[in-house]
Structures are given as C-alpha cells and as structure tokens.
Amino acid sequence: MKSGKFWAWVVFGIGTAYFFIPLLATFEFSLRMRRGVHSFDAYQVVLGDPRFQATFLYSVVAAIFTIILGVLVVVPAAYWIRLRLPQIRPVVEFITLLPLVIPAIVIVFGYIRMYGSNSPLPFLSSDLGASALLVIGYATLALPYMYRAVDTGLRTIDVRTLTEAAQILGAGWSTIIVRVILPNVLIAVLSGAFLTFAIVIGEFTMASLLNRPAFGPYLQNIGANRAYEPAALAIIAFAITWGCMSLIQILSRFAPKSANRPN
Amino acid sequence: MAEPFLSIQHVRKSFGATTVVQDFNLDVEPGEFVSFLGPSGCGKTTVLRMVAGFEEPSAGKIVVGGKDITRLKPNQRNVGMVFQAYALFPNLTVAQNIAFGLKVAGMPKADADRRVAEMLDIIKLPQMGDRYPYQLSGGQQQRIALARAIAPKPKLLLLDEPLSALDAKVRVSLREEIRSIQKKLGITTIFVTHDQEEALSISDRIAVMYGGKAEQVGTPFEIYNRPATKFVANFVGTLNVLEGKVTDAASGKVQVDTQEVSLKGKLNGSKSGDTLSLALRPEAISLGRQPGHDASLSGEIAEVHFLGSVIRVRVGIGGNTVSLDTFNNPTTPPPAVGDKADISFSSGDMLVLH
Fold first, then answer.
1. For residues B182 and B179, what is the distance between their CA atoms, to the nearest angstrom?
2. What is the pLDDT of residues B85-139, one digit of tens each?
3. Which domain holds residue B159?
4. How many CB atoms lie within 10 A of CB A31?
5. Any domain includes A177
6. Is residue B1, in this structure, part of any structural domain at all?
7. Which residue, A24, A107, B219, B297, has fewest beta-carbon neighbours within 10 Å?
8. CB within 8 Å of chain A, chain B residues 100-119
9. Are B288 and B192 part of one and the same domain?
10. Helix or strand or coil: residue B56?
C-alpha cells in the first residue's frame, strides 16, 4: 500500500514535470528580452503592438459569433434528437466527431472551391463573406465539443417530461427552448462556449488560408520573425485558454440542481 | 345522465403493428373524478396522453365541452396535467413554476401574482413561493405541480400516477388533498393509477382497463361488489375463486368439489354440465354456519395466521382453498390446522365469472 502510494507520487511528479518544465522554460525565456535581467518587456511589446490588438479583437469577435452560431445550431438539434429522434443519435454523434478526423486544411480547401467568386454562394468575394465563412468553419471545428457539452447537459434533465409539462401549460416550441430547456443546460452551453473560444483564439489554418486577420496567423508571423515575443504570446494564449477552463469550473457550481431526482 | 363534458369515442392507438388501445369509449360528466385503473401496459397512460394531445389516436374522436380536440396540439387544449415525475422546472422558483402557464397565456403580472398566492394557499404551502424545487420534499413538489396545473383554470385535469413516486404515508394524505381540491374547484379530472386502493378511495367512477380495453366502468362500489369480468374480479380486491360445475341449471345447483350449493338466479345463460368460476370476497364468508347465510361448504383448516386483532384462516375444500378473516376473540382460541370446518355465505354474494 505504502509503496503503491510512493510510485503514484513518482508518476504524478514525472507527469507534472513533463507538463510544467517546458511551460516554465518558455515563461522564463519570455522574461529575458532585456539583457542580464528578467523583465516583462516582451509582454509590453506584444500588448502594445497594434496588430496584436487588432488580430486579438478580430478573433474574439469571431469567437463570439462562432459561439452564437454553435448555440443556435447545436441546442435545438441536440434537443430535438433527444426528444423525437433518439434512434439517430449514434449517427449524429459520428458526424459531430468528423471535424476531429478531417484536418482543417481539407475543410478549408473544400470551402475555397465551393464558395469562390464563381460560386452561387460567393462568400469569398467580400471581406464580410470570408469572415462569415471563417465563423462557419470555426463552428464546424467546435462542433465535437459544443455538441457533447450540450448533449451531456440535456442528459441531466428529463427533457421529454419537462417539454410535455411546458406544452400542456400552453407553451410553444420557442418558449420551451428559451424558457425551459436553455436555462437548464446553460452551464453545459457555457462549457461548450468556452471550449469554442479557446479553439478559435489560437486557430491558424483556416484563418490563414482564408486570409483573415486573426490572432492565429499573427502568432505564427511573430514566431517566425522575433525571438522573445513568441514566448510571451504563447504564455498569453495559454493563460487565456486556462482562464476559459477555470470559468467552466466556476460556472458549473451554479448549475441548477435537478428537481427530477427527489431526495 | 347530463351531457358528457369529456367524451372519448371509439379511440384506438397502434404503435406499428402493436395495438395498445382498442375501441376505448368513455363519457365523463362535468366535475366528475374518473380513475383509469389497470396493470402496467394496459393502455391507461396512453389514453390519458391522447386526451392531453401527446399521442394522436389512430382512430376515434375525443370531445371536450362539445369541441372535437382530437387533432389539437397539447398547448391548444387548455388541459392541466400532473406527471408522475413532478416535472417542475428546476431553474424556476415555486412561484415562477406556478405562474408559468399564466405568463404564457399573457396574464398581467399583478393578476398572475394574485393567482399564484391563491394557489399556494389552496395547496397549503403559502411560504414556499421563493424556494426552488430541489429544496422541497417529493410530496411538496407534487403539490406545487398540482397548483401549477390548475392555476390557468384548465377545462380538464389529468393526473398521471401522481402519487407513485411518494412514500405510503404522503400518498394517502396527498390523495385526500387532491380529491378535496378537485371537489372544491369542481374540475373534471382523469386520474391514472395502478393502485386499486387509491382508485377505490377517491373516484366517482373507475374504468378498469386490461389489454387496451375498458373491462368495466362503474362506481367503486359496483367495481368491487359487481365485477363484470374475471379480470376485474381478480384485479380489484382479494378474491377467492372456486371451480364449479353446473349440475342443474334450472334450479341453480352447482357442484364444488363433491358438495352442492344452490345459486338460484345467478346462472343466467349457463347450461347443466358447464364449468364455472365462482368468486367470493373474504369478507362475505364466515367460519361456521351463520344465521342469514343460505349456502355452506365443508372443508379442512389448511392454514391459520394470527395477526393480532384479525386471524386469517385458509380452508381447503377439495382442490380449492378459501381465505377468510375472523376477528380475534380473547375467550376462544383460533382453529387448529387440520380441524374440520364449515364455511357459510349468502348465495347472493357469490359472483359467477364467465
């Protein structure tokens, strides 16, 4: 028992070292911009760069639209599948997993061919259209995370009975989704939303090939041309991602407790 | 009979090749409390769900207040429903749950608040408006669900096994409360249950269902004392069934084991030589020959269970066993297993099951 515990700590220590040493090394390197002393100069340079602000703002806006699109598509779809079409759930789960299997570059090349200026839907012929296509592409990339989060949330409530209870009280579909279903899966939706945010903020392939001024291509550009700033950017991106994860944890404490499982 | 308020006419429901409800007919008077009683899978909940609009009948018609509602959506029917699983909205407080239907109907907030307070008073939980469902016991949650269902003043109240998830004590008190609220509001109510005691104790009429059909519709007294079919007789209450053979149809003579009993006027349609199932409620049988009882059978005490105030005795009569209860008498010890004993009863209490 004692030796088992010892080895468990050893494995934990190795895992922690494997994860944190590169991170600490990157952080330490990002502080070396000024010769001979540790400083936050690299962070100052990065945060003061107008391109950083512009690309970061662009990616944040893109992430917000991606989340809205994801919620509008995934919540009604996952709800309807649980309520009326449970038999097609395995098929839908498989489809939502495809973005993990099909590389983003394949998807974006498909988009470029499908939605070029000669297409009936010429998304790529304007900046706004290209940005809209990028948001659609991001929603596809985030689909595995958003669908799973929402579906898990729906599993914790008795979707069918709550729907019927609302229907018999006179509610239509929009009222049921907005006032009954969505509030009860809000934490799950937020989890999906933060995962989406984390994916969108660092995404490079789609934004680069669609020639969008997003944060991912900016990261790559800085990384190719500077020494200390990329390390600072990596730490900033890491902090943003972990900030999102922490928010999921905090918000999950406020999940409504189910009334369907009496004490 | 007054004009029926709810009329279920020749309703049938099939899921694929399986027919779960077949030719179901029922008229319910205004303000009446009717229970659908039957075992699991008998179709009682399906009929209720068709009345609610959650299932569409494969054939037949459902009329409420003279209006055909068969094809209306649930939210267009003005029907209230209480579910077995409470189905309170977990994200809303008790008051918000009760106000849900009122808000959907567009009632002004001040009127809705008044109605919510009135409902909370009716269910005797006036201080609970700010609580969330998870902060309440099962019984309290179900009372809130009842208040939520009746708050919009529905034409019809449907109760789908609302007591089955509760413990025995709460079940009894809540069923009485439901009945008293129903009487007070005069709301026509359909109550689905598989618990015969529940159905017998609170219903104006009971529809006993089996195999997707209503086997018998009648008052609790009729259902218990005059069961129309073998299923109803067996399902409702405890019943002793004796196998007999008609020896003389004209004079009503039936042979049970090797003994003969006279059931004059009860053998309509039977011929001499027919075999019959004869049923007797335990409370209709006495140990020994009693005055007023015109029929008797002899047997042997097979089992004796001393239960305190009551002694349960099982008497073997040939291949049949009859169960009866007698009160404990401190001066007389209970009969012993193996003793010869007579049982007596009134032939009028004997049910002939076809």
1. 5
2. 989 999 999 999 999 999 999 999 999 999 999 999 999 999 999 999 999 999 9
3. 6-235
4. 18
5. yes
6. no
7. A24
8. 100-101, 104-105
9. no
10. coil
